[in-house]
Design a protein that fits this description.
Number of strands of chain B: 7
Shape of chain B: elongated
Distance between the termini of chain B: 39 Å
Largest sheet of chain A: 6 strands, antiparallel
Order of helices and strands of chain B: HEHEEEEEE
Radius of gyration of chain A: 18 Å
Shape of chain A: extended
Number of helices of chain B: 2
Strand order of the largest sheet of chain B: 1-7-6-4-5
Largest interface: A-B, 51 and 50 residues
Order of helices and strands of chain A: EEEEEE
Oligomer: heterodimer
Structural class of chain B: alpha+beta
Structural class of chain A: mainly beta
Chain lengths: 114, 141
């Protein structure tokens, strides 16, 4: 991620990810082998905000530990497929919702035992 | 395994790890702005062997091993599941999925967005690759 496209608050409880006019592909029939690909452009903004619900996962077998919070996440986006003369814009960000979201810190692999 | 086979295997391995950034099994995976930590020289990071393969392996992040079985370096987040997409990692992770929302197309049609598999991630921190600590920020969209 280029610098400036994301922010994480100092206390780690909020994060914003934003990209504008990102070149992507439109491939509705993926993963079909012959799924047609069309160039597309996407902009999006995602906001995570921690709730008061703490989460601690410590999995010794898989060697990872996560410590953070359940979060509320919302997103807004626009998409264009120029070859189809199609564009779409989401409603304002406060009208969307993610059923599951988390934010926090993780260590895994070689850092797990440090 | 002969030297040539081993070499070929190594080349394939390197390409597969790079696929994490450059192809994406899902819609897309963004790139990185990996920076070396102080103390790791640029020669350590970039020194290529004659055929262009980094002598210490790629500086791309190492995938979570048990997510790599099907060449999918991502799993949708959920209770008890590992949030990070990167192994040998320590840092900040934000994940979310199962979005619901609405939007409008250029013909005025109301079209919903989001599905259980609509997941996003933001992963920022230190990871270990090419025998050195690296810093980077990655996202999955």
């Amino acid at each position: 991620m280029p610098a400036g496209r994301f922010t994480i608050s100092l206390d780690g409880r909020e994060a914003v990810l934003e990209m504008k006019r990102l070149a992507v592909i439109d491939q509705p029939k993926w993963p079909a082998y012959d799924a047609r690909v069309r160039p597309a452009i996407m902009s999006f903004r995602i906001v995570w905000k921690a709730t008061g619900e703490k989460i601690l996962i410590d999995d010794k077998q898989k060697h990872f530990r996560f410590e953070g919070y359940r979060a509320m996440a919302q997103a807004e986006a626009t998409a264009e497929v120029p070859s189809l003369n199609f564009s779409w814009k989401s409603d304002p960000i406060n009208t969307s919702n993610a059923a599951f979201a988390i934010i926090g810190n993780e260590v895994n692999g070689k850092y797990y035992d440090v | 395994m002969s030297f040539s086979e081993e070499r070929e295997s190594r080349v394939q391995y390197t390409i597969n790890r790079r696929q994490f950034l450059h192809t994406g099994v899902c819609l897309a995976t963004a790139g990185a702005s990996a920076l070396l930590l102080p103390g790791a020289s640029s020669a350590q990071k970039d020194a290529p062997v004659p055929d262009g393969i980094p002598s210490n392996g790629s500086t791309d992040p190492y995938p979570i091993p048990w997510l790599d079985r099907n060449r999918s370096h991502n799993q949708s987040p959920g209770p008890g599941m590992e949030p990070s997409n990167i192994y040998h990692f320590k840092g900040h992770v934000a994940r979310c999925n199962n979005f619901t929302g609405m939007g409008t197309d250029n013909k005025g049609n109301r079209i919903a967005f989001g599905a259980p598999s609509t997941d996003f991630s933001l992963v920022r921190g230190e990871y270990f690759a090419a025998r050195a600590p690296q810093l980077g920020t990655f996202c999955h969209i």
